[in-house]
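Q: What does the assembly look like in three dimensions?
Context provided by user:
Components: two
Sequences:
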Amino acid sequence: MTVLQVNGASKRFGSLVAIDDVSLTIEPGELRAIIGPNGAGKTTFFNLVSGLFAPTAGSIKFDGRDVTALPPEERVRRGMARTFQITEIFPELPVADNIRVAVEIAAGYRLKPWLGAAARAVVAARVDELLDMGGLSDKSDVRAGALSHGDQRAAEIMMSLALRPRLLMLDEPTAGMGDQETYDIARLIRRLHRQEGLTIMLIEHDMRVVFNLADRIMVLAEGRVLAEGAPQEIADSDKVQAAYLGKAAA
Amino acid sequence: MRPARHRARAFDAAVCLLLLFMPFWMGAIGGYTELATRIIVMGLAAMSLNFLLGFTGVLSFGHAAYFGLGAYGAAMAIKYLDAGTLPAIGLGVVVATFAAMAIGALIVRRRGVYFAMVTIAFGQVFYFLAFRWNAVTGGDDGLTGWHRLPINFGFATLDIFGNDKAFYYFALAVFAVSVAAMAKLIDSPFGRSLTAIRENERRARFLGVPVEFHIWLSFVISCLFVSVAGALYALLNNFTDPRALRFDLSGNLVIMAVLGGMRFFWGPLIGAAIFVALQDYVSSHTENWMSVIGLVFVLVVRFFPRGVLGMLRGGAKA
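A: Here is the predicted structure of the complete assembly.
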């Protein structure tokens, strides 16, 4: 079944049309990249899908159900997880506790005033597993705010992964990173996609990352869908090159 | 990690021992039993406020309202209903908790300074109610003509009225149960969801936490325990008046929490001890005791922004 189906979504801020009639369908197991020049509306589109604000028009279906009117936390509970352009973690808590909060919430324990030994052991094992997958095992006691940029991003992705999402949305996961960090994060994303079979939608500026990872690419420009297709089609598209390089190059 | 945990355990044990024998060593340093009782009562109030402030990251300037409702509830139960001590405390707590549930529901969407302002506004409603409604609350003069009663357990009687040490230990028992409950909550999945909100509300929401509902719960729990302190305060004084509801008390609770260190579980108790002891000592010399406390507060916040406990812990690390 289709994981995400966006139908004619639009978002206006006053007279500014940030998103204009964007539709998109994501199938299970797909890795979809969203690219476009700065200000194209990529993050706004993520915010619409994840529920940070409501669309002015259009609808969003997740797993076949209409979620257009649901608050973010409800969408998360249905399997939508996301990261942010500026990493959102719990800076004062140790890395392990960052992950632990996510694991406990995912297990449905968020209102529990206590936890039995058996449940605690299950949580601890899952935390270790996620720390390991994110390459953070040796930093589990470090304050998350003291981690390097790349490790913070890995921690944020692992927190989202703790939710066992049906759709993982990554907003510029390699933004502001050096070559090594970019490579590490790209490898992590590839692993989540190929080995864990995760459905992923990501916004990305680094074209090496995009063309290495994506199954399909959607190009946004000025809030509209400029092109959509397999990586090779997008690379060959004159329209896309024009949007990136300016009209003169077309 | 390990040694840090051992240090924390050792500190917990030291606090418990000090509290257990406070009426005995208090005299040696120039205090008296009632002062010791006041310290744990205000300590409980500040620690309850800190459940919301330090462990959920939400600042309330209106906690005096629930402290006062606990105080008036207990006092009126004894005066008008001839209630025993424990039912009287229970009534005060129930009234305050219901008030917190209703008001909390109206304000949880506000954040930061707006939340703080709205808590003051609602808090003052109760202050003026107590101030004006002479016939029931005694108005500005306060609620007099009652006193705490010995507690009859059936097999034995605890004379908390005639014996001030007995009342201290009664208050300490109530303090211990309340504080243990809060510690347990903080170190639970629910408590960690609150800390998550404090650390990063957006991240908490996008992990699936209904943030407003959790803040509401934290507010109600915090008010519940502050009302326990309020009820004890009325029993301690055999009296209550509208000042137990006024916003300057709310401010004092915040000062205690910040002074002691709001990121530390025991911080507000340390802050309350300093505040209450200074108040007692300085007010016997000058009416302007608040300016001395204010000066201490400013100095601590300026040089040790993490409070007294933060300073001690930083010192231990270096």
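Follow-up: The CA atoms of residues 90 and 124 of chain B lie 23 Å apart.
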